[in-house]
């Protein structure tokens, strides 16, 4: 069955450093991968979508990579700030018309 | 509207009662999704609508759960004879299209507590 793995343990990063989060998937070949941020008590917020033919995508301090050989996406936040502290969810998708399946998310804590 | 609106934001109900949760999507978004998130857990897909049609109802946990959508507007998720295990945050999202090349805009959710 399809499986999405994100580090379930909280990731603690010092302010100003680069935070790197991992999303691994097995038993399918997504054409796209979406990343979301979720703050406590709020719904997820869409951040980025990357296509399988895009090795890398950037948006301000965010950078996402997509390696279809490794079946992995990396999500980087450069010059991290305490306000970046949140849970980050990935959702690999074939691009079809079903509801997205999300990973369980990684809780990121940026310490001042 | 500017965002996805869900109501009520909080609902406490007695076991066995029926509840109705409402979602107002962004105007022009044809696709609408319902998810459930139990405390400390991931998002569990329930159902999606393309227009007022629900092509996939397989995510609904039991026949106590049902959902409707009026045109490309408001949707309601109804839970009959609520059980304690139904306690969770119910999140609604809308998107320009049901194709997964568009990001979702989520509401803030309805926190349901069954006592």
Task: Tell me what you see in this structure.
The complex is a heterodimer of chains A (112) and B (115). Chain A has 112 residues and is mainly β. Helix content of chain A is 0%, strand content 54%. Chain A has a 5-stranded antiparallel β-sheet, with no helix packed on it. A 5-stranded mixed β-sheet of chain A has the order 2-10-9-4-5, with no helix packed on it. In chain A, a hairpin with a 2-residue loop joins β6 and β7 (62-67). In chain B, β7 and β8 form a beta hairpin. Chain B has 115 residues and is mainly β. The relative contact order of chain B is 0.33. The radius of gyration of chain B is 13 Å and the shape is globular. The chains are: A mainly beta (112), B mainly beta (115). The A-B interface holds A 32, 34, 36, 41-46, 49, 89, 93-105 and B 4, 33, 35, 41-43, 45-48, 50, 55-56, 59, 91, 93, 98-101, 103-109.
Give the SSE layout:
The complex is a heterodimer of chains A (112) and B (115).
Chain A: E1 3-6, E2 11-14, E3 19-26, E4 32-38, E5 45-51, E6 56-59, E7 62-67, E8 72-77, E9 86-93, E10 106-111
Parallel strand pairs in A: 2-10
Antiparallel strand pairs in A: 1-3, 3-8, 4-5, 4-9, 6-7, 7-8, 9-10
Chain B: E1 5-7, E2 10-13, E3 19-24, E4 31-37, E5 43-50, E6 53-56, E7 65-69, E8 75-79, E9 88-95, E10 105-106, E11 110-114
Parallel strand pairs in B: 2-11
Antiparallel strand pairs in B: 1-3, 3-8, 4-5, 4-9, 5-6, 7-8, 9-10, 9-11
Task: Describe, in short, the structure shown.
The complex is a heterodimer of chains A (112) and B (115). Chain A is mainly β and 112 residues long.
Largest sheet of chain A: 5 strands, antiparallel
Q: Helices and strands of chain B, in N-to-C order?
A: EEEEEEEEEEE
C-alpha Rg of chain A (nearest Å):
13 Å
Alpha plus pi helix count of chain A? 0
Class per helix and strand makeup of chain A: mainly beta
Percentage of residues in strands of chain A: over 45%
Shape of chain A: globular
Of all protein chain pairs, which has the greatest interface, and how many residues does each chain bring to it?
Answer: A-B, 24 and 27 residues
What is the strand tally of chain B? 11
Helix content of chain A: under 10%
Uncertain ranges of chain A: none
User: What quaternary form is this?
Assistant: heterodimer
User: Can you summarize the main beta sheet of chain B?
Assistant: 7 strands, mixed
Average pLDDT rating of chain B: 94
Strand proportion of chain B, as a percent range, falls in over 45%
Trace the largest sheet of chain A across and list its strands.
1-3-8-7-6
- Percent of residues in helices of chain B comes to under 10%
Helix-strand string of chain A? EEEEEEEEEE
Number of helices of chain B: 0
